[in-house]
Each structure stands twice: as C-alpha cells, then as structure tokens.
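Need tokens for this chain, all 195 residues.
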Amino acid sequence: MDRNIRLVIAFDGTAYSGWQRQKKRPTIQGSIEKKLTILCSEPVCIHGAGRTDAGVHALAMVAHFQTTVGRPLSAFTRGLNSMLPHDIRILEAREMPSDFHSRYQALAKTYRYDFFSGDIMLPTRRLYEAHLPGSFDLAACQKCLPLLIGSHDFASFEGAGSRDPLQKTGRGAIRTIFQAQCRPKQANRTTGPFP
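Here are the structure tokens for all 195 residues:
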C-alpha cells in the first residue's frame, strides 16, 4: 500500500540551481530524490509546494512523496539527513492522507529579502543579504508597500522560456500578495547588525 509522506525541508540554496530537478545541474529536488530512492529501494519522485530559483534558501519548504516502504518516519528525518549534504535538512516527516498534495494544498508562502545598506559588508553575509550601500528611506518604502497588496500579473519577472505563454493551464503568473512589510534588523551587542 502506498504511503504519502510530507516533509518539511530547510536548505541553503547557494550551491544549487533551484528546487526543480535538472539533468546537468545540482538541484534540491534531485539531491533529495537520489537519497530517497536509495533509502526506499524504489524510485521516488518528490513534489514541492513550489519552485525556487538558483541560490534561493528555504527555512520550511513543504514537499511530499509516495512510497510502499514500511520504514518508520524517523528514517525520513534522521536517516535521510545522514545521507544528504549538510546544506539540506529534513526538519519533519509526517504521514498524510493519500489525497494530500504539497503544491495544491499550500495556502500561502512567505518570502523574505534581506539587504545591508552599510559601506562594508561582512563576507560571511554576502550569500544571504544584498549589498545596497547608501542611505535608505524606510518611511518612503513603507508608504509604497500598500501598492503591492492584491492580485498582480508577474509575467514580466519570468525568465525567457520559463513557461509557455500560449498554454492556458495553471495559474500563470498571477499571484496575490496579502502582506508586505519592510523593517530594520535590530542590532545585537555581540554580533552588531548581523544575525
């Protein structure tokens, strides 16, 4: 009997060409599928709640896969983590009903973009923050944020060839933004402005 296993995944996407499996480039989906196929002794296809671009990180990406193997759930956390590279971690594994689908049942996603406006950025932060040196008008930015709320067509942000514009299936590039905020990071006495 097939089991439907839901995973919560964290990853540092620096070394990967995004989530979706590719033939000649390392991806998060491809890396997890290779190890799951070994662990389950059968081919495994994992479905994510969405896709990410190259270099994008995730704190709690939901994905699921089906398997006939009767291993305990700990095999899909501790066991799988022992096989995966250190920049991918399975935070949780849970058995779900057969009709659960991580993409179609996702209610929302949260995106976070960090930037540093100081003159000299620490090298240890270069992969996790954009460097935008100079003054930043936080009040002006916050005043514009309400313009982002609502449903918008983001087709102009898609890469060339990323989707067939003539195909009428799916949601296309229309997305709804429910909340947008911009706030400064709080400096810490031991680390300064860096977390």
